[in-house]
Amino acid sequence: MARDIATPAAATGAVRRWDLVLLAAIVAIAVLAGLLIDGFAGGRNAQFLLLDVVAIALVALPLTLIVITGEIDLSVASTMGLTSAVLGQLWVAGLPLELAVVLVVALGAVLGAVNGVFVTRFALPSLAVTIGTLAAYRGLAFVVLGDRAVADFPTDWTRAATSTVGDGALPWAIVGVALLAVVFGVVLHATRFGRGLYAMGNNAEATAFAGIKVARTKLWLFVVSGAVSGLAGVYWTLRFASARADNAVGLELAVVAAVLLGGVSIFGGRGSLLGVLAGVLLLGTLRNALQLADVPADTLNVVTGGLLIASVVVPNVAGMARARWRKPPVANQASQ
User: Fold this and answer.
1) Which of 174, 184, 260, 313 is the least buried, fewest Cβ under 10 Å from its Cβ?
2) Secondary structure (3-state) at 152
3) How far, in Å, CA of 322 to CA of 109, rounded?
4) What pLDDT shows up at residue 3?
5) Is residue 3 part of a domain?
6) What sign does the dihedral 235-296-137-178 (CA atoms) show?
């Protein structure tokens, strides 16, 4: 009989404390930027900030579940680029946009399935697989659309991608992300399936002995990641009213940084969806403030890369420090 699997209470408590740290950091950065940077505190800028984080937040939701199992998907931005290119080509070919959107989301699921099959059926490292498909999917995007851009999408669709609730600054797109985040949060934190994902990240072999289909679960996670990346590619295309093969280039760096910054362990088995959403908002707020301060784009990439490195290094250094602090002195050990 399959045993029920729960996440360690200590790890959960540590994650919740980190969530609070991230929320405090967001408030501090927002207050400081509001005082020092012209235009940051305006409603118009708040709208742009939220629109900027929609795609990152969307892709980060399934990626969180994948990383918690001890895997990773670096092909998400290339999947967005390929689905954007295909969406543009289908629209040029005369397909109704409703059908084209459904087809490219399905294409994203297929691209995710390719990753999942290589990882689960051929037992290849997800890092190597998705680096390969990162290049392959981006190359296919240029095969499909080349250097062209398709920009004659219906205005009703492009306006919908950036429309707000009433006359406020809250985009409808971020409301959709919030609803999807609730679904992912319930699955991860309130179901046996979610507890199984944590168990896979801690010990996949023991999880399999507990009766959980590890390979099949990971395969479906990659499928979901691909489908959501396809949806993010649609959003990106409609928001900027342009289908291009180079859409979302480099976005995987920001997504992975947000997930790890949110407290998800790169080794798997630890993290929370609330922390990831806080990481997305923290990264988005910081990048938005730096952009308003006329910081060059290359410097923004350096900041994102620095946060990514810090999100991996800091937890490990803190863990070693705690272990050394709790270790009894050698003299005390000898006297026992």
Assistant:
1) 313
2) coil
3) 42
4) 43
5) no
6) negative
250 located within any domain: yes
Domain membership of residue 172 (yes or no) is: yes
Whose CA is closest to 158, among 110, 249, 87? 87
Tokens of 195: 């507890």
Question: Residue 44: which domain range?
Answer: 9-318
How distant, in Å, are the alpha carbons of 4, 61, 88, 264, 278 from that of 11? 18, 20, 45, 11, 18
Collapsing DSSP to helix, strand or coil, 164 comes out as strand
Cα–Cα distance between 204 and 146 in angstroms, integer?
42
φ, ψ for residue 275, nearest 5 deg: -60, -40
Nearest residue to 48 (alpha-carbon basis) of 162, 161, 151, 145 = 162
Q: Using CA of residue 86, residue 88, residue 93, residue 94, what is the dihedral sign?
A: positive
State which residues of the chain have pLDDT below 50: 1-4, 6-10, 334-336
Dihedral angle, C-alpha 249, 93, 163, 37, nearest 10 °: 30
Tell me the residue length of the chain. Answer: 336
Q: Which of 321, 253, 276, 202 is nearest to 74 (CA)?
A: 253
The confidence score (pLDDT) of residue 282 equals: 95
Amino acid identity of residue 134, one-letter, is L
Q: For residue 97, what is the domain's CATH number? A: 1.10.3470
Instruction: Residue 113: name the closest of 77, 162, 75, 69 by CA.
Output: 75
